[in-house]
Amino acid sequence: MSNSTHIAPKDSTFRRLASTLMAICLGVMALSVFINVVLRYGFGSGVAASEELSRLLFVWMVFIGATAAYPAGEHMTFTSLVGLLRDKPRALLAATLMIRLLVVTSSGLIAWGAWQQVVVGLDSYSVVLRYPTALLPLPAFLCTSAICVMALVEFIKRTPLFLGVTAEQE
Asked: Is 0.70 topped by the overall pTM?
């Protein structure tokens, strides 16, 4: 193992809020599924809305987590590849800029596609809870839009990649 230490990014208000929202989603999902299981096996009937609610909350929880993980450098990292360029500052800068451009491009394309799905879902509703089905692709749009903006800001500011994680820790 390497002697380098991993310095965790500062815990921001956004990250604490995201963690709280994810915990609420997980708690409501667990409670909903638990109640549904008890009702089905104990009394022969369940709550039809349990599956829809759990699915919706799971989607939101995943995308909230992805949005919070990006600024902390925990979403997708390839430090074992880029870390080889530590001693070559110009090559590291070029790789960093290329990575940021790829993130901006890919997240922008995903946001565009997710927005199209939101628009399509505005006129249809879920079967049981009757919420607009636009609520399912909406977190993908919000997440990828936020990541696109964060990566663009990092590109403009030329923020260095966080290389605190070594290949042995990955």
From this structure: yes
